[in-house]
Every structure is written in C-alpha cells, then in structure tokens.
Amino acid sequence: MPHTRKVKIGNTEFDHIPLILAPMEDVTDPPFRVLCREKGADWVFSEFISADGLIRDAAKSLVKMDIYPGERPVSIQIFGAHIDAMVEAARIVEQAGPDFIDINFGCPVRKVAAKGAGAGMLQDIPKMEEMTRQIVKAVKTPVTVKTRLGWDENSKHIPEIAERLQDTGIAALTIHGRTRSQFYTGTADWTLIGEVKNNPRIYIPIIGNGDIKDPVSAQTFLTNYGVDGLMIGRATVGNPWIFEQIKHYFRTGEILAPPTLAQRAQLCKKHLQMSVQWKGERTAVLEMRRHYCTYFKGIKNFKPIRMKLVTTWSAQEVYDIIDRVAVTDPEAF
User: Fold this and answer.
1) Residue 107, CA atoms < 13 Å, CB-side half-sphere
2) Candidates 36, 107, 268, 293; catalytic one
3) What pLDDT score does 299 carry?
4) Considering 252, 276, 308, which residue would you say is the last residue of a domain?
C-alpha cells in the first residue's frame, strides 16, 4: 500500500505517509494541535507568524511560538516581505525549539500578499529563492516551504519554483493546488503537484494540500499523485477525527463510523478547557466561538443553542450548555 512508505524530512522519519495539520490563522494554536495529534495527525503546524511582529517583540506573535508537550513534530511558520526580517525571525523561532521552520509563500489574504509576503512572493520568484536560501543558511533547524501553484492561471510556475527552492537546501515542499487568485474557491488542481513529485530532478519530499476532506479523497490524491505527505486544513476544523478516519480507511478500506454526539461534546469541552488554560478564560471563550458550528454540525434546531454559546463569557456556562447538547436526541445528527 502506498501509505506505508517511509518518509524522512530533515531529522524526522515517518514510518508511513504523514498526515499533516495545515497552518491556519486563529485555528492551529497549541490546544487544537494537541487534539489533532491525539486523533492521529503525524505532524502539526503553527498559525502564521509575522516576521515583523516577532522582531518588534509583539506579544501576539511571541505567544504563537508556544509548543505543548505531546504535539511534536511541530513546525512554526513565518511570513514576511523582507529578507533581513525573515532571517532574523527564523533565528528567533529557532530558539523556541520547533522541529521545523516553515516559510509561508502561500497565504492569499490581501493584506499579506499585497505587501509582497505570503503568496505575494509568487510575483518575485528570484526574491523568494534568495530569501529561502538565506534562511536555510542562518539556522540549523530544517527549513520547509509552503506555497501555491502560482499567482494566477497564467503564471503556474510551480515546476520551476520547486526546483529553485530545492536548490536552496529546504527539507520539504508543500504545494497547495490553487493559485493565489483562487484563494480557497474552485477545485484544487493536483496535476501540477503530481508533475513536481514525478520530476526526476526533484529529490526532496513533496507534500500535497487542497481539497482533502475525507478518507476517500485522501486515498485518491495519494494513489494518483504519489506525494510524500498529505496536508489537511479546513476539513479538520471541528473535526480532528479526520486523521484517524483516514488512517482507518488506509488500513482497512472501510469508513470509520463518525464520532457520536457525546464524543463531539466531550472533545469540544476539552478543547475549551485547554484553551482556557493556555490563553485565559475571556480570550478562550471568545475564540472558541468559531468552532461550535463545526463540532455540532448537523444538530437540528442548533441556532438557539449556538446563540447561547456565542453570547456567554463564562466558560462554566459553555460547559453546561455543551453537557445539555450531549444528551440531545442522537437522531438529530
């Protein structure tokens, strides 16, 4: 089976094709990363961290470098438009002790890309290459890159970009199968990801990302394109179980039963409890509000329950509401 192939990235060896939690702003904080590791993720990524924010000693950027026991291997991802700042930020990140430092050349958000950072770097490939080379030289921690197919439909230069980035000394490359102009719309195009992977000049691991939403899509992309890792983003939100579901399918060819309502409620409570411990009650209660609809997707008449969940500032009240949700008629799913 293709998923049993060993993959070595930097100093880390996986005894199978790794399933990887993608970096997502305001989602992949330490509590969520730990939950995903517990549910089968092999490798997790931090939220995006601004190089300028790290250099300014901005508290919001510094706290994103926290690493919990039990979440390794973990990557800390940085973005920025200036080479010197990115090199300095990489050195700061290295002091936090991640297993990998990842460079974000894929974020499509306008306020990032318009400044030449994230996917904006796809408009200046020589600068992208030079920035990566200097970061690799500046740190001992393995450096990886995450990027997209290109800036738009007319500039899908990823085959060339992959070779140039490989020559800088990176340990692995993740490719999201969309252009920057697509943002997260339309369908991810894996054909160019496969072209990069099957290029005889490419020897570093190639990780595929985009539209992996269930075990069947994961198996299809892995079988058809032969990548060295599968990175999963939006499908994990409120559903850390997706990792164990995919692994079960890889092993048996069977679809694992979805988590019960009680299991969803239990994990949602644990997520909030860990968040309260990490960032304090008020911030945790506020930031967990984006997760409730996904944890409890499919419950009939959920709107009034959701309104209670997103208007209270009390963690205990949230726990009490979740406990009541847990005994809702299971047929509501």
Assistant:
1) 25
2) 107
3) 83
4) 252
